[in-house]
Amino acid sequence: MIIKDILDQLTLSDRPVARVIRSSPQFKTLIIALKAGMVWPNHKATLPTILIVTEGSVVYKKGDRQVQLNKHDDYQIPVDIIHSLKAEEDSICILIQG
Asked: pTM higher than 0.85, yes or no?
């Protein structure tokens, strides 16, 4: 009940909620939940990453470039590039790193 637990935490949170669901030295899989308007602030990926939107709509931003991602869209996030994520509506994303 990982996603249900994350959504329960999100109802009381004023920032995105993330949880690692599986990891090893070579990879990591996370679930991120955001309420509409929440921002996952600027950061860098340390491993090649795929972002998959399973619910909602988010905007991936790197520099001046913005990419709208909707339910079931995916996006390849490069290593060592500063980027952020903003929820346009309540959203759940899966990140697969490695």
From this structure: yes
Contacts 24+ apart (CB under 8 A), 14-20: 16/40, 16/87
Tell whether the model's pLDDT for residue 87 goes beyond 90: yes
Give the CB-side neighbour count of residue 95, counting CA atoms within 13 A. Answer: 24
- Type of residue at 28: K
Contact 93, 54 (CB under 8 A): yes
Structural domains for the chain: 2-97 (2.60.120.10)
Closest CA to 90 of 59, 55, 61: 55
77 beta partners? 49
> Within 10 Å of residue 70's Cβ, how many Cβ atoms?
13
> What is the helix (H) or strand (E) element at residue 2, kind and residue range?
helix 2-11
Cα 2 from Cα 81, distance rounded (Å): 29
